[in-house]
């Protein structure tokens, strides 16, 4: 008998303890990883890597989303809502690919990015679906819908968090401290909502549009590993050596089934 | 100091078990619909008791409300048992059930506050099954059958059967843990598939032993048939759920067939564990040498049965 009373007490204490922990978890620790002062880029010798990301094969058909779980979402769309995970342009260009310098910039320091980047929730979809930011760069999360969303990034190396945002509620501003390509972001109220945030420690990255093109300007001379990341197709890398004031063109190709 | 049958208490314990099964279904719906974090705070939901009931919040908040109901029903059970029950071990089990349900609530809260850490999610899923089995056992212990069944002579074979039935229940428990580990991404499917083979062998063998060696008692027969039907159903549901889960990996949102097959598989798993445990308990109950301690009945009630039991 006594043992059980003890067990119940212990459980209650545990419950209280966990509440405290939950609160602590909320404090943002967003100080970006700034390496000790290192090299800076000399604009006199900097060059450019530009190129295109292509997709060959037949892209999978668009997938229809069922939004009936929340009338406030369904109401915002006239016809059926579809998502193309593999979005291609007329010239075979692949959209929503994050192209960035993965290796080769070690030792450089860059001024921090302070301009906020917006991630909107509109029609119970993230806008944009793929977002790239600098480490420490503020991300402003906006809810343009008449319904509640929860924003839940699921990082591997950054701090995980989960916050709710009421209909047209106040902006949530947060940032990620470590490089990670890319962090999936989910809304657990509307399980079809999906975004990806690529966090990169330097300014040399771009998210492709339908044309699939990218341009990384003002790169110092050096040998770089460039990576192209796609939410569904994975990653591919290429080595590029850039001489002073050089412009190089690179083509990434993702093969469909 | 003998315990008399209290139909009210028995029905209440049974109702608590039914509510618990409903709670398991609600919890399974939360996982299958990926709604565990749709309410970021705990113990309150969006700082209130009544959050907006849309999308994933419907599943998460319903789960919390049914859990509250089961918690209150368990407190009721402890009070009722504490006041009327003469068997100390039944009272102790009721307290254990209360401790489990509280711990279970805390684990559920921790999954929310720490963003579904796998070990806690798996522990929460496993404890749910154990709690359900415990409440079902309490319903059995308070049943008229348990309190009045006449013990039958124990034989070496019947003791073996009883022991094997216990191992079967434990095998099923391990299998449920492996299932939870697969569901929450801790292990692949292989251990759970191997576990299914082990459970199939164990339950078939137990069924065989029970048919051959156990006393012909209606309750035991009923539980034996129920157990094999559940295991058969469970294997079919499991294959269906696996197919749906694999298919769902390419989908952009939970597919309804995946949700319902996984939840049905989970509920059937809970029923299988409870039935195997109850079969073991029923076998124990009808074994003469132990029957007296089990019920708390006075030895004088069944002197003939005792003699018969002691004879062999
Ligand atoms: Cu949402």
What's the short version?
Chain A is mainly beta and 257 residues long. In chain A, 11% of the residues lie in helices and 40% in strands. Chain A has a domain of 131 residues: Immunoglobulin-like (Sandwich).
Per DSSP, what share of the residues of chain B sits in E-state strands of 2 or more residues? under 5%
Q: Characterize the main sheet of chain A.
A: 5 strands, mixed
Return Rg of chain A in Å. 22 Å
Whole-number tally of structural domains of chain B: 2
The level of helicity of chain B is over 70%
What is the overall silhouette of chain B?
globular
Query: Could you say which structural class the secondary elements and strand pairing of chain B correspond to?
Result: mainly alpha
Q: Architecture of the domain at 83-213 in chain A, according to CATH?
A: Sandwich
Helix-strand topology string of chain B? HHHHHHHHHHH
Would you tell me the structural class of the helices and strands of chain A?
A: mainly beta
> In CATH, what is the homologous superfamily of the domain at 83-213 in chain A?
Cupredoxins -  blue copper proteins
Total strands of chain A: 18
What series of H and E elements makes up the topology of chain A? HEEHEEEEEEEEEEEEEEEE
The geometry of chain A reads as: globular
Mean pLDDT across all amino acids of chain B: 90
Oligomeric state as shown: heterodimer
The termini of chain A sit apart by 65 Å
N-to-C span of chain B = 30 Å
The total of helices of chain A stands at 2
Largest sheet of chain B: none
Average pLDDT of chain A, rounded to a whole number, is: 86
Q: What layout of secondary structure does this protein have?
A:
The complex is a heterodimer of chains A (257) and B (312).
Chain A: H1 2-26, E1 47-56, E2 63-65, H2 71-74, E3 81-83, E4 98-103, E5 117-122, E6 125-127, E7 130-134, E8 139-143, E9 149-153, E10 163-165, E11 172-174, E12 180-186, E13 194-200, E14 205-207, E15 213-219, E16 222-230, E17 234-242, E18 247-255
Parallel strand pairs in A: 1-18, 5-8, 7-13
Antiparallel strand pairs in A: 1-15, 2-3, 4-14, 4-16, 5-6, 8-11, 9-10, 9-12, 12-13, 16-17
Chain B: H1 7-32, H2 56-84, H3 88-113, H4 118-141, H5 144-148, H6 156-183, H7 190-213, H8 218-248, H9 256-286, H10 288-295, H11 303-311
Helix pairs in contact in B: 1-2, 1-4, 1-9, 2-3, 3-4, 4-6, 4-9, 6-7, 6-9, 7-8, 8-9
Bound molecules: copper (II) ion.
The site of copper (II) ion has 6 residues of chain A, from loops.
């Amino acid at each position: 008998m006594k043992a059980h009373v003890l067990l119940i007490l212990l459980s209650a204490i545990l419950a209280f303890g966990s509440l405290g922990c939950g609160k602590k978890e909320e404090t943002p620790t967003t100080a970006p990883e700034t390496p000790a002062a290192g090299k800076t880029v000399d604009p006199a010798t900097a060059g450019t890597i530009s190129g295109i990301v292509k997709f060959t094969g037949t892209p999978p058909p668009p997938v229809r989303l069922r939004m009936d779980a929340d009338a406030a979402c369904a109401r915002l769309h006239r016809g059926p809502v579809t998502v193309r995970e593999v979005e291609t342009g007329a010239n075979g260009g692949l959209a929503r690919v994050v192209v960035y310098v993965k290796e080769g910039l070690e030792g450089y320091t860059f001024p921090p990015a302070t301009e906020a980047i917006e991630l909107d929730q509109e029609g119970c979809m993230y806008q944009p679906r793929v977002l790239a930011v600098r480490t420490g760069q503020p991300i402003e999360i906006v809810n343009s819908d008449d319904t509640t969303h929860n924003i839940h990034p699921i990082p591997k190396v950054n701090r995980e968090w989960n916050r709710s945002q009421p209909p047209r509620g106040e902006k949530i501003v947060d940032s990620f401290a470590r490089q990670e390509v890319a962090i999936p972001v989910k809304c657990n109220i509307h399980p079809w909502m999906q975004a990806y945030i690529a966090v990169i420690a330097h300014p040399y990255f771009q998210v492709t549009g339908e044309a699939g093109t990218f341009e990384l300007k003002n790169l110092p001379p050096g040998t770089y590993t460039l990576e192209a990341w796609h939410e569904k197709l994975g990653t591919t890398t290429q080595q590029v050596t850039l001489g002073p004031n050089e412009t190089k063109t690179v083509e990434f190709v993702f093969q469909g089934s | 100091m003998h315990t008399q049958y209290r139909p009210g208490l028995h029905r209440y314990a049974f109702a608590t078990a039914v509510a618990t099964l409903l709670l398991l279904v609600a919890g399974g719906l939360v996982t299958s619909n990926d709604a565990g974090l749709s309410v970021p705070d705990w113990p309150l939901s969006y700082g209130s008791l009544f959050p907006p009931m849309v999308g994933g919040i419907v599943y998460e908040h319903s789960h919390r409300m049914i859990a509250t109901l089961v918690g209150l029903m368990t407190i009721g059970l402890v009070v009722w048992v504490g006041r009327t029950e003469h068997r100390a071990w039944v009272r102790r089990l009721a307290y254990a059930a209360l401790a489990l349900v509280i711990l279970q609530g805390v684990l559920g809260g921790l999954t929310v506050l720490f963003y579904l850490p796998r070990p806690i999610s798996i522990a929460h899923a496993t404890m749910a099954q154990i709690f359900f089995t415990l409440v079902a056992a309490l319903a059995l212990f308070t049943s008229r059958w348990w309190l009045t069944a006449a013990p039958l002579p124990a034989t070496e074979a019947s003791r073996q059967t009883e022991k094997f039935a216990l191992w079967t229940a434990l095998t099923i428990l391990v299998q449920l843990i492996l299932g939870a580990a697969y569901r929450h991404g801790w292990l692949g499917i292989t251990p759970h598939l191997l576990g299914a083979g082990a459970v199939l062998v164990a339950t078939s063998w137990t069924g065989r032993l029970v048919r051959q060696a156990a006393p012909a008692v209606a309750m035991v027969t009923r539980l034996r048939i129920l157990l094999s039907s559940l295991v058969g159903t469970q294997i079919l549901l499991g294959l269906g759920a696996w197919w749906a889960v694999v298919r769902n990996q390419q989908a952009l949102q939970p597919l309804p067939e995946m949700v319902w097959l996984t939840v049905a598989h989970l509920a059937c798993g809970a029923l299988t564990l409870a039935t195997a445990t109850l079969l073991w308990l029923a076998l124990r109950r009808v074994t003469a040498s132990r029957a007296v301690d089990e019920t708390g009945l006075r030895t004088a009630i069944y002197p003939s049965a005792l003699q018969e039991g002691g004879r062999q």
